[in-house]
Structures are given as C-alpha cells and as structure tokens.
Records
---
Amino acid sequence: MADLSFYISPLSEEIREEGRVQGRLQGRAESILLLLGARGIDVPDATREKITACGDLEQLRQWLRAAAHVTSAEGIFREETYASG
C-alpha cells in the first residue's frame, strides 16, 4: 500500500493554502479586467500586467470597487476613486 501521509502533513496543507490564495488573486484580477471590459474600458497591456501581477488581495478588492466607477483603466490606481466605501 502507498504511503499517503504526505497528503495530511503540514507541508501539504501549506501547499494547498498557497494554491487557494493564488486562485483568489487570479480570480479577483480576472474580475477587475472583466468588469472594465464589460464597461467598454480599454485596458492597456501595462495596466493589465500591473493588475494580474498584484499579490495583495486587499489592493485588488479596492481596484475592483474602483473599476465600477472609473472612466479609464488607469483610474483604478488613483486612491481617491476607491477611498470611500
């Protein structure tokens, strides 16, 4: 019988948690880009890269909120667009 102890080890759980975090980061970045696209806002490559490279869930949440209100993709990076609410 195969040794399956790795799958219940702390290291295995750490790897799974890292995967969950990466999935949330990717999902939130995709949501921002989808919302901007649905609003007809063009997203330059540099802006798309900054969004998808972000590793901070809170920052992405703020950008997602801002994406509902801005008139340009770069507008999500202006603090005043998401500071309230």
Note: The chain is about 60% helix and 0% strand.
---
Amino acid sequence: MRAMVWAGLGSAAMAALVAACAPEAPAATGQYDFAALCVDCHGAQGKGDGPLAAGLTPRPVDVTVIATQNGGVFPKARVMSHIDGFTMGRGETPMPSFGDLLDGETVLYDSGDGIPTPTPRRLVALMEYVEELQVPAAE
C-alpha cells in the first residue's frame, strides 16, 4: 500500500516533499560569515591569531583595534572596501577578496557619509560584526 502512495506522487510533489524534509541552510549572518571566512586567519576573537596566521606574511591584522587606530571611529566604508577586495593590490596583503559577499540581496546603507547606497546585505552584516568586535583603547 505504501509503495502505491509513493508511486502515485508526481515528480513535483516528490521534490516538494524532499525539500520540506531537507535541513534548512543556516542564514548567512555577519557572525556566520566571520566564522566561515575570517577565523582561520584573524582568529575567533579577531586578534589576528587564527590557525593560519603564523604562516602568513604580513600577519593578519587585529581587527579589534580598527577603531582605536582610526581615532576612535570605525571606518565602515573603508572596512567594507577592504573585505570585498576593492582596496586589494594597494599594499602587501595575503587577504583574499570575498566577492561572494557581493551576491544576493542589497540594502540601502549609509556608511557615515549621509548617502544611502545599495550595498550587499552580507557585506554590511560582516562589517557590522567586525565593528562589534572593537575593544576600547587602553587608557
């Protein structure tokens, strides 16, 4: 009887049933993308001490002090430009560009210049996660 039920399902119905049972892919959040793309070099805390860091020249930067090194201001547009590869080739860096962050949904985002610009949602999310990792300057 069970075989007859399965045989009676059309291919579209079967595909829908299989898709409904498949595990959902995790949503790409800034934290998820950092873990997937950045941790190997920058480390889980962003200190530049990931498992691959020792073999890289120059070593990965400590992304937790970007604001401190910029007078206490986190340079959102500059960080996104670096992540997406726009600034690659300007200096010696083994950091790859992450063009896949540029695919998909865009959001209007004002990075501080007062101009909302269509920007890839995943790129904004990753930059905002790096911004959350900032540590205050030592007194």
Note: Confidence is low (pLDDT under 50) at residues 1-7, 13-19.
---
Amino acid sequence: MKQIGLVAIGRNEGQRLRQCLVSATDKVARVVYVDSGSRDGSLELARSEQIQ
C-alpha cells in the first residue's frame, strides 16, 4: 500500500505540470495540486482524466 502523497504548487506550469503529474501518479497514493492563479489551463490539466 502506498503511503506517500505529493503536493505540487504551481502557476502557469503547462507541460512541466503534465510531466510532473504523469511521472508521480503511479508512485504516490494521492496528488494535490495547488494553483496560484494560472491562466494557461494548468488547473484544468491537473483535474483531467488524461493524467491518471
């Protein structure tokens, strides 16, 4: 059972966020993305099913 979580904080991270989430989702129990006002679709990307 995985017991480690990931908290990622970002703003307008785009492709870097995608790479981060894709590389982490199978290694951690939970991912929490905290967005500080992105305008590039980062929040929508983090919510998308494409990452999982």
Note: The longest helix spans residues 14-24.
